[in-house]
Amino acid sequence: MEKIRTRVQIKHELGRALLGEFVGTAILVLVINTVVAQNVVISGTSKNALININFGVGLGIALGVAISAKLSGGHINPAVSIGFLALGQLKPIRFLLYYLVQLAGAFVGAALAYLVYRDAINVFDGGNRAVVGSKATAGIFASYPAPHLSAFGGLVDQIVATAFFLFFILHFTDKRNHYPSWTQPLLIGLTFVTIGTMFAGNAGYPCNPARDFGPRLFTFIIGYGTKVWCGDASYCWFWVPIVGPLIGGVLGAYLYQFAIGYHIPAETEYEVVVTRELQPLTKEGEVVP
Amino acid sequence: MEKIRTRVQIKHELGRALLGEFVGTAILVLVINTVVAQNVVISGTSKNALININFGVGLGIALGVAISAKLSGGHINPAVSIGFLALGQLKPIRFLLYYLVQLAGAFVGAALAYLVYRDAINVFDGGNRAVVGSKATAGIFASYPAPHLSAFGGLVDQIVATAFFLFFILHFTDKRNHYPSWTQPLLIGLTFVTIGTMFAGNAGYPCNPARDFGPRLFTFIIGYGTKVWCGDASYCWFWVPIVGPLIGGVLGAYLYQFAIGYHIPAETEYEVVVTRELQPLTKEGEVVP
Amino acid sequence: MEKIRTRVQIKHELGRALLGEFVGTAILVLVINTVVAQNVVISGTSKNALININFGVGLGIALGVAISAKLSGGHINPAVSIGFLALGQLKPIRFLLYYLVQLAGAFVGAALAYLVYRDAINVFDGGNRAVVGSKATAGIFASYPAPHLSAFGGLVDQIVATAFFLFFILHFTDKRNHYPSWTQPLLIGLTFVTIGTMFAGNAGYPCNPARDFGPRLFTFIIGYGTKVWCGDASYCWFWVPIVGPLIGGVLGAYLYQFAIGYHIPAETEYEVVVTRELQPLTKEGEVVP
Amino acid sequence: MEKIRTRVQIKHELGRALLGEFVGTAILVLVINTVVAQNVVISGTSKNALININFGVGLGIALGVAISAKLSGGHINPAVSIGFLALGQLKPIRFLLYYLVQLAGAFVGAALAYLVYRDAINVFDGGNRAVVGSKATAGIFASYPAPHLSAFGGLVDQIVATAFFLFFILHFTDKRNHYPSWTQPLLIGLTFVTIGTMFAGNAGYPCNPARDFGPRLFTFIIGYGTKVWCGDASYCWFWVPIVGPLIGGVLGAYLYQFAIGYHIPAETEYEVVVTRELQPLTKEGEVVP
Fold it and tell me: What is the DSSP letter of B279?
């Protein structure tokens, strides 16, 4: 084993990081697309299934972040990367490379999800891949706006939702908050569950330019037609979940610093208390010591 | 404050323990009865609401155990107490006293739940408290069997469910498993969420003689009539969620010891590894260190 | 970065605390109002969506408490602040200032939620903002009683629910219980999930005078009319979720101390056990060491 | 007690391990089969109940892994064991023995579930045990493909789902990731909740040859007839949830190593940071220190 490791291991840190972002984003999109597929082509788009989608998507983010954390820092989202870029914690060239492999990972994740649900999609739409109508399945892969949503409303939705996401990513990963490493992917995932309960009704809360554009490109290539870019709305949608999250990512990162981060007292104002478990002197029959 | 504490504090450990069991069981029953009330008189008994009930009840157990853990060990259930009695970890007299205050706490919890939902119940049943029929509300407080359930089936249900519960309570509180104290009430609550997804369809998974009999007595006293004892089934039900859990509690405690507990290697076979957090040397832009 | 910090950081501890309460309460109300908005104007008020609302609201509380904890202690609720006031842990002037910024934060959170859901609300009600009727949307922002609920019943509901909340906030933050810092916002959020499963059916469990009055004032200002104060009930409702929670907050704080807190043994009765992870000597193929 | 332990304890490590796998798999199948039974014969197969099934099954895995972790490593699934076999962490003879007791445990778990739900199944199907049709109950115990699923699609589903599962089991149990022991069964269970939200619609995500074949054999023996092997599909199904997971288990184990594991930097590249809790100097009225 150790021999294989030595031969296989990518020596350059950047190479490992790009691999991590690729794998993490592929996992993320595989989860999100299959979760939505199940609701579109099998369970029906029952509104009550929202909680099932929200938890599936949130856990998908937790798993994608966890798997890539040690290699790349677990961004798996250009909106997260641009937030760190804005705060000077990521170099521009690295941001661009991350963005590229995130897109590639998202594309592969969508293809995997398609592989898993091809039988079901075929029976559902009779082989006629559609972006709009009652047998539309393009929404499995990329986001489309609800009928009530204007282009401006969509942009607001994506900016606010992504800023909210970055705001808490920065909180949970701020070393001064001392969240144990293992909790961070889970807490980021739970934040996205919250975002699902808040924003799902407008446009399916993509909040991630790679997660949205990669699968959209995939649907275009496999024959969903040009409607994947503009759907049936009076405006083109595809750029909204790209531009909105990128703006929201920068906004959320700054908001965290100016509203919270810069004001947290330095740790010298704190006293260190070593963690310890206290257990009462033995008493009979106690369940929780 | 410190002065009040000195004057108020119960000096005798047993007194504090009985107070803990009383408060914890009252909390438990307040949660369970209001959770079910909401589904019976307001949301309707929609089956899809099962997950809402399961989480509400499980969290109620977690909260009840947590609040009483330091004073009494957090049993809040005679079936749990009898399990510890069977293993020689609780004295018989203490078991009896625990049982009594658990019953009293359950009675008070039911009364509190009734206070909160009296308006809703009055509108729902027009002031006519019923145990059976489409306007029955007795099921808010105590358990009643589903129409398909025989007396024997009910006994099996309660024995298996409660043995399952004790089996995992002993696992989570076994010191050799090193579950941090703060996790134990939550894990016991999650075990009961699981039990809800497993057993709810038979008789509402009471698994607790105090939680069931206390509220049942309360409904009898406030005028639900003698049907609270035998309902409309061809057999009397009320003794099943008393006898079943007490048998299941003993069975589950022994099962844990004979199937798992006695076989866990002594800790001398283990090497001690001090917990530590590892953080990579600073890299730019990483979310999860 | 360090330079910006030095220039931006609020030097006075009270200033930082008020900022924390403002931001935390705004986050809280943004979450709660968007979660409810999604159910009112998009998913429909399907009862089965209760679990989705309960988790959304509970996670919103967890996030709001977490983000403000280091700056202000994470009250984000006058009922919580008055509880600490009653126990002598918060000065009266500080209580008043907290209350004011909590109200301001709640107002801003409601405005943000309105911004996000304006398109959807416009399509839903045709631009006719209503407090009652099938197209009413005022319930997105502030609480309104269910038809069955009397003024007295509403007061009982809010007192019991908020006392329950404070009871467990004090438990989870009691230093003697040694809950790790990072778990406390989550456990407080889970307590509120529980409260949602218990009390949602009466009046939507506001349990927070700022969270309720701030958004109510916002709806009054943007044109929902005077019905936001008294709705269609035979009594005025708006004061109930102010007075009830304030009473409940004081009651819950005292209840915790007298029923539990004062009776927890001093730590000198405990032996200190240093936390450690035990790992078995290497065995082949084991999943969980 | 100590005396009984000495007499009862299985002295040989392999014997204890086989006991652990037997008990853990029995627990797992008892949970999964009762969870599904509740939905099939009592709640109806309402699609909205998916979240209830997903959490029940995921928690069942968490409990089964937790209870057997110290004795056997908590595989309770031949697909997990074959993954460790492929990585050279389990000897072939041990793999075979694990597989056998996992099958036996699954059989016993199914029998227990049948005992608990016999009344309900009898009322539901009038005593006529059926594999297909509106009164079919065989799906309580073993998996059957959805009508849209081809044999190839089913194989893809089981390979991808199980590879996903192993991928994350290896992540969570990789010592270099320092997940605390107590979190590992829970995180493995949450991974399976995610798999439920992703794959449930195709064939009920068995992902475990023992969990599927043991109960299938049980249904054959108690009189469901030969249709349990091939159902009503144009192809035989029973071998798919055996072969698919075994392939997926090996694939997922290698994928983890080649895509992630081999690239994680050695710990010498990390600096050790001792975990500590920081608590601010006492300030008045703070909830979360």
Answer: E
Task: Among D188, D285, D289, select the one facing C90 at the smallest CB separation.
Answer: D285
Asked whether residue D236 is assigned to any structural domain, the reply reads: yes
Residue D36, domain extent: 2-264
Cβ–Cβ gap C67/A277 under 8 Å: no
**Alpha-carbon gap, residue D154 to D132, rounded angstroms:** 18
Q: ipTM value of the model?
A: 0.91
Separation of alpha carbons C56 and C27, rounded Å: 12
Whether residue D197 and residue A115 make contact (CB cut-off 8 A), yes or no, is: no
Assess if residue B39 is contained within a domain: yes
Interface partners of B (3+ CB pairs, < 8 Å)?
A, C, D
b/e sequence D170-190, b meaning 16+ C-beta within 10 Å? bbbbbeebebbbbbbbbbbbb
Contacts of A204 (CB under 8 A, 6+ apart): A36, A139, A143, A144
The dihedral region occupied by C140, where left means phi > 0, alpha psi between -120 and 50, and beta the remainder, is alpha
Query: Is B84 an 8 Å CB contact of chain A?
Result: yes
3-state secondary structure (DSSP) of residue C273: strand
Q: Alpha-carbon distance A63 to A29, whole Å? A: 11
Averaged pLDDT, A85-113:
98
Inter-chain residue contact C276 with B272, CB threshold 8 Å: yes
Q: How confident is the model at residue C44 (pLDDT cuts 50, 70, 90)?
A: low
Model pLDDT for residues B141-157, shown as the tens digit of each residue:
999 999 999 999 999 99
Percentage of chain D surpassing pLDDT 90? Answer: 79
- CA–CA distance from C128 to each of B187, C81, C228, D245, D279 (Å)? 48, 37, 14, 56, 51
What average pLDDT does the segment A111-126 reach?
Answer: 96
Looking at residue B177, its amino acid is: N
CB contact under 8 A, B59 and C260: no
Quick check: D94 and C286 CB within 8 A? no
**Average pLDDT score over residue span C78-100:** 98
**Token pair recorded at residue A189:** 């995932």
* pLDDT confidence band for A52 (50 / 70 / 90): confident
For C109-137, the pLDDT digits (tens) are: 999 999 999 999 999 999 999 999 989 99
B69 inside 8 A of chain A by CB: yes
Return the CATH number at A8: 1.20.1080.10
- A94: closest CA of chain C, how far (Å): 20
Taking CB atoms and an 8 Å cutoff, what residues of chain B touch D112? 160
Cβ of residue D281 closer than 8 Å to a chain A Cβ: yes
Nearest C-alpha neighbor of B29 from the set B120, B132, B143: B143
For residue C52, give the nearest of A54, A157, A258 by CB distance. A54
Is position B23 within any domain? yes
DSSP, residue by residue, A81-147: HHHHHHTTSS-HHHHHHHHHHHHHHHHHHHHHHHHHHHHHHHHHHTT---SSSTT--GGGTS----T
Neighbouring-strand partners of residue B271? C279
pTM of the model: 0.92
A73 contacts B283? CB cut-off 8 A: yes
What integer is the mean pLDDT of D204-223?
97
Q: Residues B154, B240: contact at Cβ < 8 Å?
A: yes
- Chains touching A (at least 3 CB pairs under 8 A) are B, C, D
Question: Out of A44-58, B66-80, C156-170, D128-142, which region has the weakest mean confidence (pLDDT)?
Answer: A44-58
Bridge partners of B277, per DSSP, are D273
Provide the shortest C-alpha distance from residue A276 to chain D (in Å): 9
Q: Which helix (H) or strand (E) holds B289?
A: none
Helices within D204-239 (DSSP H only): 209-219, 227-230
Is B281 domain-assigned?
Answer: no
Work out how many domains chain D is built from and give that number.
Answer: 1
